[in-house]
Amino acid sequence: xxxxxxxxxNPGPEYEYxxxxxxxxxxxxxxERLGAAYWKDEAGARxxxxxxxxxxxxxxxxxxxxxxxxxxxxxxxxxxxVEARDIIVVHDDIDIPxxxxxxxxxxGHGGHNGLRSITDELGAGDYSRVRIGVGRPPGxxxxxxxxxxxxxxxxxxxxxxxxxxxxxxxxxxxxxGIESAMREFNAE
Length: 188
Hints:
- The chain is an alpha/beta fold.
- The chain has one domain: Rossmann fold (3-Layer(aba) Sandwich), CATH 3.40.50.1470.
- The chain has helices at 22-33, 69-80, 113-122, 143-148, 153-176, 178-185, and strands at 3-7, 40-42, 45-52, 55-62, 87-93, 101-105, 128-133.
- The radius of gyration is 15 Å and the shape is globular.
């Protein structure tokens, strides 16, 4: 396998329509677009092997909850001989405005426990990220409660309209590289 795209989220219907599942939603859409006919359970994740151009791509949805995603990512990266620089992690980000998608090359976890888990397991944060803006929680609402809040109506529609942009960002990284994606998607 040459590259991996990891979507962060929580398994189970109670989390399906939450901000924290933006990564799952994006990778599932990418799978649909790339003809992922079959998802299997392996190494604590749901995975699907697809082709992107002339390249093999492993789509990964860790099933151990966001905060413990790193173990599945590490096991799959080792099994498939994928280096950290060939991994793209798609995740929600409260520090980015709603309806915004940004690409990032490596870096710290920024307080995101899913990224912290992956960085701890891989030993470095050298992977690319596609950050889906979900905005800050209102008032004094706990950020954990905010990202896990079930959404309906306009809030859900807004997130669902941002997911295709995130999938496009992933495809841009795969085709043109992270620097090009940062120029294309990070412009204000």
